[in-house]
Design the sequence.
């Protein structure tokens, strides 16, 4: 006979024994047999250490699963209530819209109307358009005379970018609602056609060219006036004086 304290887990039914007196005849025997018995305290516990650890891990996994599944479940419910265009999370819809935008199937890649997921991106894009317009406006103020048609057209294109961006948002909202399909007219407002660095550089270059032309014209007028102030002026003499100025670029003569 052995003396031991036995503890059995109710959850896994595993039994733990702590011997405090071994059997002299059968010290190698651990279980009860017809010729060997174990005496001592025998108690049953709700959970052992191993089960507690397993239960804690299961609870953490369930909580994490709940956290992961909540956005998807919320998205499905909103989609059923017609509050969301697709039964997907904000991140999934944003990735889908971005892919469609690169395929020229959307006017912009932003999620609007049903979430604020891309609110900061939209505001950042708007600030970029405003910054470009401010730089063009500041540079245009240095033009003293009347702008030529090419410069005016390039500037107006940059200054109207924010309005076209708002129009792109409005049109895409109509398309997403299912009221109509995208048309070729809609594609003219795609922001891929707005955020063009070459357009901005071209506008700034045209402004700088016109400012340079005005400066050269001022130099020409001052120099010609100093040479011709004591002469009898006729149309022919004025033309000869202008043609005699070697330092004026050829493009000035075309103005």
Sequence:
């Amino acid at each position: 006979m052995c003396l031991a304290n036995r503890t059995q887990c109710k959850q896994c039914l595993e039994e733990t024994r702590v011997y405090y007196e071994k059997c002299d005849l059968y010290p190698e025997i651990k279980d009860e047999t017809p010729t060997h018995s174990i005496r001592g305290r025998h108690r049953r516990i709700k959970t052992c250490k191993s089960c507690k650890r397993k239960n804690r891990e299961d609870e953490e996994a369930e909580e994490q699963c709940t956290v992961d599944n909540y956005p998807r479940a919320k998205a499905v419910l909103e989609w059923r209530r017609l509050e969301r265009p697709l039964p997907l999370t904000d991140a999934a819809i944003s990735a889908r819209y971005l892919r469609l935008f690169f395929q020229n199937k959307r006017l912009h890649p932003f999620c609007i109307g049903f979430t604020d997921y891309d609110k900061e991106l939209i505001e950042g894009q708007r600030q970029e358009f405003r910054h470009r317009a401010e730089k063009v406006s500041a540079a245009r103020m240095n033009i003293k005379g009347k702008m030529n048609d090419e410069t005016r057209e390039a500037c107006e294109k940059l200054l109207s970018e924010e309005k076209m961006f708002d129009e792109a948002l409005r049109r895409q909202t109509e398309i997403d609602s299912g009221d109509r399909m995208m048309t070729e007219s809609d594609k003219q407002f795609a922001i891929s056609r707005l955020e063009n660095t070459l357009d901005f550089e071209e506008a700034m270059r045209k402004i700088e060219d016109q400012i340079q032309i005005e400066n050269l014209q001022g130099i020409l007028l001052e120099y010609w006036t100093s040479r011709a102030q004591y002469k009898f002026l006729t149309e022919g003499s004025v033309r000869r004086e202008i043609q005699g100025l070697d330092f004026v670029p050829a493009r000035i003569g075309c103005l």
In short: Residues 246-255 have pLDDT under 50 and may be disordered. The chain has two domains: 2-46, 90-254. The radius of gyration is 42 Å. DSSP finds eight helices and four strands in the chain.
